[in-house]
TrEMBL record:
The lineage of its organism: Bacteria, Bacillati, Actinomycetota, Actinomycetes, Kitasatosporales. Signal peptide: none annotated. This is AB hydrolase-1 domain-containing protein. It comes from Streptomyces glaucescens. It holds the Pfam family Abhydrolase_1. InterPro entries: AB_hydrolase_1, AB_hydrolase_fold, Carboxylesterase_BioH.
Length: 251
């Protein structure tokens, strides 16, 4: 395990790492998740073996610290992730990022372009204020104290065993503030960043999630949009072969 201090209080962002060839692949999880739990089985596949791989847990999640004074906005998550990559001597990385992690990756690529050479985004949040059915919207519908004092437990009961397995590792207030920040979005907005970034960009949409809004505009901007058969939001679990092929760039 490696770690780096990301705030003035000495809080640490942590990651596990597999050595290998550069450029590194950096795996970034979604809201209430953890990177190794969602991606280690992908990085271990034969078609992806041999590359340096980092599994970073964002502040408030997994094995990273959860300072009470941290804001957990997309920009703050991106800056903390940049601190980890700087400490790991990573540049020109491929970011493999899921859901909220995809939004964080876009902000990072915008703020620190030398750190990122390629983006593979899985159902990343591109727009503010997702529909009420989205997990972030449900969490953000509470007030912070209300969520911490009972809403968190109710959400854990209702999200299903897969998401709950890692959400229970997230600090309730960090989870809430991350959800609020995700609903607020970034400036410029994530969709605009995806359209304008000059690196290779791949966007994975699960077939079961329905058509991606604005797909034609993204493709016109040079984004490669792939619909993954038989997959929902968690493409890496639902169709790991197709997910690995997208990461490897063989589809």
């Amino acid at each position: 395990m490696r770690q780096a201090v990301f705030d003035d209080e000495g809080s640490r962002i942590r990651w596990t790492e597999v050595p290998g060839a550069e450029p590194a692949r950096v795996y970034v999880h979604g809201l209430g998740a953890a990177s190794a739990a969602y991606h280690a089985h992908i990085a271990a596949r034969p078609e992806l073996a041999g590359r340096r791989s980092l599994f970073v847990d964002l502040p408030g999640h997994g094995i990273s610290d959860r300072p009470a004074s941290f804001g957990y906005s997309l920009e703050e998550h991106a800056d903390a992730l940049a601190t980890a990559l700087d400490a790991a001597d990573v540049s020109g990385a491929e970011l493999i990022a899921h859901s909220m992690g995809g939004a964080v990756a876009l902000v990072l690529a915008h703020r620190r372009p030398a750190l990122v050479s390629r983006l593979v985004l899985t159902e990343a949040n591109l727009d503010p204020f997702p529909p009420p059915t989205a997990g972030s919207s449900g969490i953000a519908s509470y007030e912070e104290d209300e969520f911490a004092d009972g809403g968190y437990a109710r959400v854990l009961e209702n999200v299903g065993p897969v998401w709950a397995a890692t959400m229970r590792l997230a600090d309730p207030r960090a989870l809430y503030r991350s959800a609020v920040g995700l609903r607020r979005g970034s400036q410029p907005m994530m969709r605009t960043l995806l359209e304008e970034l000059p690196v290779e960009r791949v966007y994975l949409q699960g077939e079961l999630s329905g058509e991606l809004d604005g797909r034609q505009a993204l493709e016109a901007a040079g984004v490669r949009v792939l619909t993954v058969p038989g997959a929902g939001h968690n493409v890496m679990f639902d169709n790991p072969g197709a997910f690995a092929a997208a990461v490897a760039g063989t589809v």
